[in-house]
């Protein structure tokens, strides 16, 4: 639970970058890895217990992402602030960008915000995070490098009284090619894999993959792991090892299937379906 340490915006610039680029295709992004709250917002009017729930952050994905970055020798870009401050996987102005209530828990500090207060959160948290991702992708594309956007998330095992059976879900919308290949590899491991479950990727409910994957016509995949599997270090390590093994396999299959030469950028024409 490393995100807990970063509770002061002076110590946490809002964006944390992990891993070193070892020349592979993957860029990892984690919109909900952090749970920090800028000090000027206090505790948001939400108890520490509730802020530590799934409504505050994607439990366990910080450990998975950082271990995965190390194993893949890839760069990981993380948002360190809680999604209760502003959700970095929502377009600015989206009804759930700054939530007033989440899974039954009111967020009093988010009620009756002025336009200036909203803009301040966007300018200091949302936009710098996405600008950092854009910077990473721009540099790679300028160098003519193959680039695959991997969005990492985790989901709560139970929602609205319903238990969720999937251990992992892959979300996709306009370009499902890489998601389908990775889904098949995960199923071969004997896992119950959600196909656009527990959530479907859409133009409006998501922001990161539509912005950095779909609009730029970059191969991409959005991965959701069930939180009870990764809320402890051994589980995080297990999932990082699994994804570090399967993501390169999925990418190799992608290159074979769609005629992309590893080392060259995916043909933009073939990138959207
Ligand atoms: Zn998430």
Automatic annotation (TrEMBL):
This is N-formylglutamate amidohydrolase. It holds the Pfam family FGase. It comes from Acetobacter tropicalis. It comes from the Bacteria. InterPro entries: N-FG_amidohydro, UCP029730.
């Amino acid at each position: 639970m490393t995100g807990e340490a970063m509770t002061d915006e002076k110590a946490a610039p809002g964006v944390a970058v992990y891993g070193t680029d070892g020349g592979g295709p993957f860029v990892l992004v984690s919109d909900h890895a952090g749970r920090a709250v800028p000090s000027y917002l206090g505790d948001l009017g939400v108890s520490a217990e509730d802020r530590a729930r799934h409504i505050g952050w994607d439990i366990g994905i910080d450990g998975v992402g950082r271990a995965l970055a190390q194993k893949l020798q890839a760069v990981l870009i993380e948002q360190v602030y809680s999604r209760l401050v502003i959700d970095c996987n929502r377009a600015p102005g989206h009804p759930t960008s700054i939530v007033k209530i989440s899974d039954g828990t009111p967020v009093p500090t988010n009620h009756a915000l002025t336009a200036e207060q909203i803009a301040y959160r966007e300018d200091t948290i949302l936009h710098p995070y996405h600008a950092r991702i854009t910077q990473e992708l721009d540099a790679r594309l300028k160098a003519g490098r193959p680039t695959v956007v991997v969005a990492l998330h985790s989901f709560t095992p139970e929602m609205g009284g319903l238990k969720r059976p999937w251990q992992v879900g892959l979300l996709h919308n306009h370009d499902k090619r890489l998601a389908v290949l990775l889904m098949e590899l995960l199923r071969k491991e004997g896992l119950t894999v959600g196909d656009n479950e527990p959530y479907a990727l859409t133009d409006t409910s998501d922001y990161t993959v539509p912005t950095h994957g779909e609009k730029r016509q970059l191969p991409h995949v959005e991965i959701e792991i069930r939180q009870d599997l990764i809320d402890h270090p051994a589980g995080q390590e297990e999932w990082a090892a699994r994804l570090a093994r399967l993501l390169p396999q999925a990418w190799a299959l992608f290159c074979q299937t769609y005629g992309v030469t590893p080392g060259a950028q995916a043909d933009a024409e073939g990138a959207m379906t």
